[in-house]
Amino acid sequence: MGGVAFNAGRRSHLIHVSVEGPRNGALPVVLVHGVCFGPETFERPASALARRVRVLTVHRRGYGGSADLPPGETVDEHVNDVVAALDRMGIPKAVFVGVSGGATITLAIALAHPARVAAAVVHEPALGPLAPGVHGILSTGAGMIAQAAEAADGAEAMAGLLAGPSWGACGHAERMRIRELGPVVRAEVPGFLEFAPSADELRTLRAVPLVSSVGGNSRAQRMAAAQVLAGIAGARLEVVREVGHLLQIEAPAVLARCALRQRRAVLG
To answer: How many C-beta neighbours within 10 Å does residue 150 have?
Structure first.
């Protein structure tokens, strides 16, 4: 991936954003990765999208091209990073696609800056206590990380817990990369656990064209959370068959098509 660095906001550091596709394309697609699984996991959907549209892949603090930056401590900090990057590029609005923690950040961007989100695809985000099953998964993972003697072991355990049945889709290289991210994962997980939008806040997302996707092979807690988002936020629920939590790895073409559908719907 090629990359451009942008002012990240509050702590005056820089985050890295990879840019592909037409340089001046209208309404770009922004890809946001989650915890443990970094921007490299979006290479295939980004390449597919770049044949048609401008694609920005965010490298969050501690990951990929932003590996030299201190980890983000709150979801708000990640929101500030992404918004600052768009400001620096002169992009007022985009279609956002997030998976797992990236979906959580996408929801937070839509809540804090709805005018910036033309449409969004969120695959299995956290919703705090409104989705107690997923919140429980995160709580369990946070405990595993805190108790692990080595940060690498905690990160690998957390990744396996988050991925669930999709963990088998990760090869040796990806698992080693996750282990190297141990200190980053340990530092950032508590911030995601604290994300807890209210039902009233989620109802404001009814003004945003929103797809809540969930893998057909994912755990029941993931489906329950997707249904909560559909019921409260008015998101369109999409079940992706034969796929689990790691949509960008297991079905990159499906993820790309979903993003393009959202973009076409906005552009008419």
So the answer is: 10
**69: nearest Cα among 150, 27, 12, 130:** 12
Nearest residue to 247 via CA among 192, 165, 136:
165
Contact 222, 134 (CB under 8 A): yes
Please give the structure tokens belonging to residue 204. Answer: 């404001």
Q: Tens of pLDDT along 1-26?
A: 444 333 333 444 688 999 999 987 78
Phi, psi for 211 (deg, rounded to 5): -110, 125
Report residue 152 as tokens. 């690498």
Question: Cα torsion for 146, 104, 164, 16, to the nearest 10°?
Answer: -80
Instruction: Say if residues 141 and 162 touch (Cβ distance below 8 Å).
Output: yes
CA distance 210 to 157: 31
Assessment of whether the complete model's pTM goes beyond 0.70: yes
